[in-house]
Amino acid sequence: MSVxxxxxxxxxxxxxxxxxxxxxxxxxxxxxxxxALRQAHLTRTQAEGFYAVHRERPxxxxxxxxxxRGPVVLAALEREDAVAHWRQVIGATDPAKADEGxxxxxxxxxxxxxxxxxxxxxxxxxxxxxxxxxxxxxx
Length: 139
Ligand code: CMP
Prior knowledge:
- Helices cover 40% and strands 20% of the residues.
- The protein is an alpha+beta fold.
- 33% of the residues are buried.
- The chain has a single domain, classed as Alpha-Beta Plaits, CATH 3.30.70.141.
- The protein has a four-stranded antiparallel sheet with strand order 2-3-1-4, with helices on both faces.
- Adenosine-3',5'-cyclic-monophosphate binds next to helix 4.
């Protein structure tokens, strides 16, 4: 195992529910170091660029509309085995299938409005943190 980076997004549904603070506390409780943190209201173009890999999926339009409907919190996280650990903490994509104690089980509503994002590979952890924190000195 090695120290990795992953991108956490607290999605618009979770920001609207005012649970960003709970999720950030969970990040800290799980032993992640917050390398960078900011709030942003994504433009549709930013959302489309971030999720470009899903461009051909039937839910792409709905996903980009949702992700740009209100503010999100973006956090670059670092930890041993960060990618797998954060995905375990957030739970399955569909909150109905997520384990008890996961963030999506606690705060997600459905497949689209599922409260949080986590990178799905070590490579994407680096690509996704760089997408939202370009040129930043990540501490
Ligand atoms: P995320 O981990 O951010 O990565 C891609 C997102 O697409 C995923 O979370 C879901 O929120 C969303 N998604 C996946 N499948 C569907 C679907 N069938 N309908 C709507 N959104 C989906």
